[in-house]
Amino acid sequence: MEPVGSILQKRIRELGAYINKNKQPKEIKYKCELCQDRGIILLDDSTGKVCDCTGFQKERQDHLFRFLAEADWENFDLSFYRSDKIEPGSKLAYRQLAEQALSSARDFVNQVVQGCAGDGLVIYGPVGSGKTLLAACIARDLIRHGKNVVFLIVPELLDDIKATFYDDENGESKIMIQAKQAEILILDDLGAHNYSEWVRNKLYSIINYRLLNHLPTVVTTNFTLPELDKYIGERTTSRLVQMCKGVKLAVDLDIRYQIRRIKERKKR
């Protein structure tokens, strides 16, 4: 096995070559000017050291904490879902779908709190339909009941997984272990990202582990499960179908736009 020092030196050389080849414009603002958000500081003698900064991760966690702190069942406002608009697939009104989704989310929380190993949830629907808010309400309620919830935003999770490519040579990364073994895992925004085969395998590994160990999982996505096939692969989608109940939300206008309109009217 290649020594850790050699692996680090190789990575530093690769980083140096990449930076020299792809000079960044001066106007780019980094969260950490020392390491330029890479986590490694390159030194003049072609060596490097791990940066002490944790600002980027802390900012992400603080933002997530504030979001979860504001999430509450009462904030899932059914008035944003129209009763006179019918969703073609289910032939139900948007309001009815939202009521069903809210009921399924509450049932999921109750099952987990009571220790029943029931189905997880795949909450799907268009952008701005309230998927993330519903998932956050689930997370907050479970935390209130003393459950350990890991809430991961998939694009950020993928960045973290890719950043551990070299670490995986010496064992599974911490982020993978956390995602696999979390008491309750919520994966937010599983969508049309650039999934390499390596990343697809990592996602499969997480989902398959949780299926085999009967660990509660909630996923939000803009796509139906059949549509997800071409992005995350049939193996992973098949396991999601096996372990999760599909819950649909539908709106004709992004709820964030609706909220903004209401605020603007109040200012007049």
UniProtKB/TrEMBL annotation:
Gene3D superfamilies: P-loop containing nucleotide triphosphate hydrolases. The keyword Nucleotide-binding applies. CDD domains: AAA (cd00009). Residues 117-247 form the AAA+ ATPase domain. GO terms for biological process: DNA replication. It comes from the Bacteria. GO terms for molecular function: ATP binding; helicase activity. InterPro entries: AAA+_ATPase (IPR003593), IstB_ATP-bd (IPR002611), P-loop_NTPase (IPR027417). The keyword Acetylation does not apply. Pfam families: IstB_IS21. Keywords: ATP-binding, Helicase, Hydrolase, Nucleotide-binding. This is Replicative DNA helicase loader DnaI.
